[in-house]
Amino acid sequence: MDFQLHQRVISWLKTAGDSLIASLNTNLMVEEKTNASDLVTRMDKEVEAYLTQQINTHYPDHRVLGEEGKGHSIEDTRGVIWIIDPIDGTLNFVKQGRFFGIMIGIYADGQPLAGYIYDVMQTDLYYGIVGQGAYLNDRPLQPLKINSLAESLMVTNAHILVGNQFNSQALLGASLGSRSYGCAAYEMISVIRGESALYLASRLMPWDFAAGVAILESLGFKYSQPDGKALNLLTANPGIFCNAAVYEEVLQIINLK
Amino acid sequence: MDFQLHQRVISWLKTAGDSLIASLNTNLMVEEKTNASDLVTRMDKEVEAYLTQQINTHYPDHRVLGEEGKGHSIEDTRGVIWIIDPIDGTLNFVKQGRFFGIMIGIYADGQPLAGYIYDVMQTDLYYGIVGQGAYLNDRPLQPLKINSLAESLMVTNAHILVGNQFNSQALLGASLGSRSYGCAAYEMISVIRGESALYLASRLMPWDFAAGVAILESLGFKYSQPDGKALNLLTANPGIFCNAAVYEEVLQIINLK
């Protein structure tokens, strides 16, 4: 991957992050999308517009798929596509003022090239360049060692567990316990750092998983739909995002009859 | 409360926190207590011994109640009692290297005088001096505004929700969602900062809640057992720890017949 492109992404993320921090004491103009916990603010829109504009200016032959629809209408995965989530965890952003992230995944012909997750309030930038490793604040990322689900924590959300979706109560019982941060960026970071062996999600849009998947790929970690099928970059997906050491075990527990 | 005592506590917490950070790349000598997710390390023991020794030296007429039993055997709440948790969230400490805290509560005749929660990896020190306010890193703590459960997040753990203990699924449905950090220190901090309206716990020992309760008291927040009874400082308790704006609503939902 192009070094100049990488430096540009980092610079854009810092600029966007600074604007989010500055916005926290202002009127965020919160609107509900599908329900009271699915929010959008003026900052989701502003950051997505900013990132899209930068990409369009510097890479006019690339396309942009963004959560707030400021990018292109995309129906195939040909060429280079930037998949961006201007604020992942908007509910946390609004209600907690932390535990949110900005995410960018870059894909070529449907394959991950690079992923960036910026934990704005921690000023921690995680990225992975496929084939060239994963990094945290420009140092090689060294995930904590994961051996088995029985010796590990997992991350998922409360509703999945309460509904026992994907046999999640069996996963919970097979692990040391579950954590829930309420934002895909944080759940992905937990797996990437080796703090959790598994992130289980019931419905992620491409911008929720594209960046994380590219970082997982850079680390040799495993991801798929819970039935083992590949994730689809153009639709909503359920997903499992795993340390390689537990992927087969997780698949087996989820798909027990 | 005595200023010199306050300064001593802060100094001890910083020293203890530094020793925890330094220990993260060493052999922690992890032992299981009641089960695989109930752990103790040499650092739990060392930090508790250090704090207990400091308290005994400077305040020989005070008593210490500590998680690892380095303090006194305590059967009544007379006089001044220090209630300490050397590492709250030992499982997170061992498996994640963050999301843990050191907690100290100081009580006189069973009433909270002061509470300290030190988020070691963030170097964030939260404290409350009853009657004199609550602070984060020596600045007045200004919790985010909470209006109602319907407009707020909550924190509790996965097993409570899966088992629908304390009508927790109804609480989940009445809120914007639940978060779970896996450590009482972090769950308390979430309520103290106004990031969550409620922390619901099924079984906390005195060292799990003593510090948090003193900070909540400093803020005018509310806490009790889920049936409304007062917490008992000498035994295990289920507990609700709430922003005052939602306490009555939470009690009502939990105790619906």
UniProtKB/TrEMBL annotation, chains A, B:
Protein name: Myo-inositol-1(Or 4)-monophosphatase
Keywords: Hydrolase, Magnesium, Metal-binding
PANTHER family: INOSITOL MONOPHOSPHATASE, INOSITOL-1-MONOPHOSPHATASE-RELATED
Protein residues bound to Mg(2+): 67, 85, 87-88, 208
Gene Ontology MF, one: inositol monophosphate 1-phosphatase activity
Any Pfam family hit: Inositol_P
Gene Ontology BP terms: inositol metabolic process; signal transduction
Organism superkingdom: Bacteria
Obligatory cofactor(s): Mg(2+)
The species this protein was found in: Facklamia miroungae
